[in-house]
Specification:
Number of strands: 13
Order of helices and strands: EEEEEEHEEEEEEHE
CATH class of the largest domain: Alpha Beta
Distance between the termini: 66 Å
Strand content: 35-45%
Mean pLDDT: 91
CATH architecture of the largest domain: Alpha-Beta Complex
Helix content: 10-25%
Length: about 180
């Protein structure tokens, strides 16, 4: 049986889970998330514990079991605590600033780049070189962070660009000295 799939999900106080056929709605202090899950998976809510079970041991059901449980756990965590990704900008003169809901980047192009947040995501420039992407849906927060990073990914030679906080960029050696002729 799936190790991830058989773990129960603890529903914290203040979070309400509604199951209607294959449609699951999770409401909490941070907001409301709704998702349609695989109808083959059976969901059982007893007290403050949510469990996912599968009908058979077929390959498809085994693969869907852990996925369904992870999606539900992320929904519960999102409406109770929320998710955030932190990015940092590395480079001389590279910076970001908040303009309304949007972020404006100055990252070595001849023009500024303005990023509009996806629905359900908030962007914040904590410092000139730090960005925080936060929201209740883990997928959307990750997608927004990936879109921002894709504007100027870290350079392999100097390390300049936008990277996740704590991301290690392996730098390639430059040309160096030529020996011989």
């Amino acid at each position: 049986m799936s190790r991830v799939g058989r773990m129960p999900i603890t529903v914290p106080p203040g979070v309400v889970v509604e199951i209607k056929d294959s449609q699951v709605t999770v409401t909490g202090p941070k907001g409301k998330l709704s998702r349609s899950l695989n109808p083959d998976m059976s969901l059982a809510l007893s007290g403050d514990t949510l469990a996912v079970s599968r009908p058979s041991d077929s390959k498809e059901h085994r693969s869907q079991h852990g996925l369904t449980r992870s999606l539900l756990a992320n929904m519960v965590a999102g409406v109770s605590q929320g998710f955030e990704k932190n990015l940092e900008i590395v480079g001389v003169g590279y910076r970001a600033e908040k303009k309304g809901d949007n972020l404006v980047f100055r990252i070595g192009f001849s023009h500024t780049v303005e990023v509009t947040p996806l629905p359900g995501v908030s962007l914040d420039a904590e410092a000139a070189n730090r960005i925080k992407v936060s929201g209740i849906d883990k997928e959307v927060v990750g997608e927004m962070a990936a879109e921002i990073r894709a504007i100027r990914p870290p350079d392999a030679y100097k390390g300049k660009g936008i990277r996740y906080l704590g991301e290690r960029v392996r730098l390639k050696p430059g040309k160096g000295k030529q020996s011989g002729k």
